[in-house]
Amino acid sequence: MKNKVFGSRRTKGDIVFDTLNYIILALIVVITLYPFLNTLAISFNDSIDAVRGGIYLWPRKFTLFNYKNILSQSAIYHATFISVLRAFIGCIFNVFASLVVAYAISKKEFVLRGFYSRIFIFSMYFSGGLIPSYFLIKGLGLTNNFLVYILPGIVSAWNIMVVRSYIDGLPKSIIESASMDGASEIRIIFSIIFPLSLPVLATITLFVAVGQWNSWFDTMLYCSSKQSLSTLQFELQKVLQSSASLQTQANMAASKIPGAASNTVTPASVRATMTVIAVVPILLVYPYLQKYFVTGLTLGGVKG
């Protein structure tokens, strides 16, 4: 007697549904990747030729001059070191502070947990403003000081609330068992809470790293007069500003000699090259944190 296998045959409706799904997903992939691929193509295309437009996924006139022009800036390499250093140190301090504070306000026996939670939530919606913040930083003596990249960002209300939500979902019996065995709060944090919270900690690490890496406005406000503290993003911003004056000359050159290559840069080519240079380090780090990133965002909102 032959066994009947149910569900082995696909109906026309199933085939149409799957086909539409694949088409929609393919369109989403194209829409998502096209801006980056277009930027990559422009960065590798001749600057004068790029002014004419019509570049989509592949450079029309391939050149490395845009990258040579930006990477020839001597300040770029030291600025890259400063950006990497501030991202690394900033992540360590921010993750540590977020874990410790989140654990404290997650404990029900902490009588001020509600008060501090409201303070953190209030600070997420209201801030002191740019001018008071500048005078505060200046009054603390942090201008032209590397610590201005680290200290103001140690405590992040958003990160604290995300980690606290994750800790609230952990089994309370593990923490209670450790306390009954005589473990101190420090031992509980680093031996139990820290290993169990790796997914959400990796998530906020990525948040902080991207924020620190992309930041340039604080450099302009507080450290613009000290070249040794300049960051990569700030140096790239200066390169973009210096190339803005070349737009008129580039337009004229493109109209007079449409087929000629050039040894100059335009704001469009500089912007595209800057984007590629700035995003490469994050692209290298993200694959290692992706699984934690997805898990952290998913489990961080689940209550136990």
UniProtKB/TrEMBL annotation:
CDD domains: TM_PBP2. The gene is araQ_25. The chain crosses the membrane at residues 20-37, 75-103, 115-135, 147-167, 188-210, 268-289. GO terms for cellular component: plasma membrane. Belongs to the binding-protein-dependent transport system permease family. This is L-arabinose transport system permease protein AraQ. SUPFAM superfamilies: MetI-like (SSF161098). One of its GO terms (biological process) is transmembrane transport. It comes from Clostridium oryzae. It is found in: Cell membrane. The keyword Repeat does not apply. The keyword Transmembrane helix applies. Keywords: Cell membrane, Membrane, Transmembrane, Transmembrane helix, Transport. Residues 80-286 form the ABC transmembrane type-1 domain. Gene3D superfamilies: MetI-like. It comes from the Bacteria. It is a multi-pass membrane protein. Its main location: membrane. InterPro entries: MetI-like, MetI-like_sf.
